[in-house]
Amino acid sequence: MVQLHSTVEKVTEQINARSRGPRQDYLDLMARSRDLRPQRGQLSCGNLAHGFAACGDDDKDSIRLMESSNIGIVTAYNDMLSAHQPYADYPDKIKAYVRAVGSTAQVAGGVPAMCDGVTQGQTGMELSLFSRDNIAQSTGIALSHHMFDGIVCLGICDKIVPGLIMGVLRFGHLPALFIPAGPMPSGLPNAEKARVRQLFAEGKVGREELLAAESASYHSAGTCTFYGTANTNQVVMEAMGLQLPGGSFVNPGTPLREALTQEASELITRITAQGRDPRPLAEVIDARSFVNAIVALLASGGSTNHTIHLIAMARAAGLVINWDDFSELSAVVPLLARVYPNGQADINHFHAAGGTGLLFRELLEEGMMHGTAGTVWGDSFQDYSQEPYLDSDKLAWRPAADKSLDTDVLSTRAAPFSPEGGLRLLEGNLGRAVIKVSAVKPEHRKVVAPAVVIDSQEALAEKFAAGELERDCIVVVRFQGPRANGMPELHKLTPLLGSLQDKGFSVALVTDGRMSGASGKVAAAIHVTPEAAMGGALARLKDGDMLTLDAMAGVLSCDVAGFDERPLAHAPRDSEAGVGRELFSVFRQVVTTPEAGASVIFGEEF
Predict the structure, then answer these.
(1) Chain segment 201-230, per-residue pLDDT in tens
(2) Residues 6+ apart with CB under 8 A from 21
(3) Dihedral angle, C-alpha 540, 543, 545, 547, nearest 10 °
(4) What's the rounded Cα separation, in Å, for the pair 389 and 549?
């Protein structure tokens, strides 16, 4: 096995050292929970009768005897999310596959599954980030009945997978795995989609043309094909060893997709306490798993939302990760993938070029990933550089492609797109922030310009339409953090700022909000912490203040004398009511900073 890179080893060690107390507390909790297995044996006769009352007679007998596994299915199905629509019949399929190997399965519960694509730019987006912790809580409720020996999670999209992981990690005395459903086939090329969006922002095409382009891009069941948070989730789940290797991006409704679903359904029964190879989640997941996830994120140019989500997920396992860990790893992890918005290819092209199997093998052979990390399949993560295929209608595995089939999409460690992952930490008197520079040309990575201070996406659109932004500027969009309004995505900003940059102006963005995969070609300092609503320095800014955003030097500052003595501005509006926001007011009061996971479940400090 290749020697681990010194930085990867160092970051892993510092996470373990930082986490020593909370990690031990977590493992002690899991040990106490494990003593109850099989948990339904602790139930009274009345409890147990309620638990299997709706089952068929054969399943009742199996659950009653305690000798075989009863699998709990937590599903995020709804048929509004294109990615989740294929899950409609997955519970029945899983039950049939599990029953065929002598076990049983029940739907333990459903969790919310909102679509960021539908709520983008709408008021409902203010609930998106909070839905993650709500999903974690809902997962906990679903699994609280002491009926299950293993867990299957059905979820793909943005906040859903992180929320499910946070929930199941608190049941880490049981094994758990995820079953994906795959991406939709490729539609309108990403370059054309981006072109039409920018033309619409400039008023050169109308809504009819824009809707036609969007509909041609998002056109069928399956995950959206750009490399946003949903598809990043899939890469991360494989990197953590919680899905079958190479199966994330097999399209829905194909024979291979069905074979993978069957294999995963059977696998969960083999890794329960009643199976021949018990693998409780708390023993599979540790600091190595999260370092592998961060490395995969960086090497693939994945969503910056995971600089928040992975931190919250880690805390559910008693591990403390921060942005220093991301930044240190990013400095040594090569960028090996170019998938939209960091390139023009979509996730299907990435998969065809070699996919996760080739990506992981290149990283393992460079010493960038822990080959010894635990997994639900195979002997260790070293086995995850494989891909599935059908051999006479039977699922089989083979080594991933030994070279990229499209070097414009997926490269190798010998010829990376960049020697670093492109995610950097910015610090200065405006706070701490992250910036993704993998799609930003070097000449745009340092901007020194006067501030344009606004408090909403809509205000930028108004200034753009009025011609007030035809100059060098750093746009500051504040009061967009979790405490202010739930931290919605700010995708409306991208076409406008991109248009200004294309006109030759030096522009950048600074915000305490989120941008994820939409940050694109404009330098964007995001997740600024502390946020304006928590007394952060962004609340002191005024129009015309000279700002420096230097991604190369890691600087984010206001270059004005007496800045620290200025009074703080207050949020111009509240987020108290409408589309259910009033139900989450307590979340806004207690949510932690993004660098602590923007969570209402775990505190700023353990």
Answers:
(1) 677 888 788 778 777 777 789 999 989 999
(2) 606
(3) 90
(4) 47
The two structure tokens encoding residue 425: 């930490």
Number of helical (H) and strand (E) elements in the chain, helices listed first:
22, 14
Looking at residue 361, its amino acid is: R
Closest of 605, 307, 559 to residue 428, by C-alpha: 559
Radius of gyration of the chain (CA): 24
Distances (CA, A) of 25 to 13, 30, 130, 164: 18, 9, 26, 21
Task: Write the DSSP symbol of residue 448.
Answer: E
Strands 446-454 and 546-550: antiparallel
Candidates 227, 344, 348, 353; CA nearest to 296 is: 227
CA distance 22 to 24: 5
Q: Tell me how far apart the terminal alpha carbons of the chain are, to the nearest angstrom.
A: 35
Helix, strand or coil for residue 335?
strand
Q: Tell me: the pLDDT tens digits for 231-272?
A: 999 999 999 999 999 999 999 999 999 999 999 999 999 999
Two structure tokens written together for 281: 């989640």
How distant, in Å, are the alpha carbons of 231, 235, 379 from that of 317?
A: 23, 19, 22
Residues forming a β-bridge with 71: 105, 150
What residue has token string 């500027």? 473
**pTM tops 0.85:** yes
Q: Please state, as a whole number, how many other Cβ atoms lie within 10 Å of the Cβ of residue 12.
A: 21
Question: What is the separation of C-alpha 513 from the centre of its chain, rounded to a whole number of angstroms?
Answer: 16
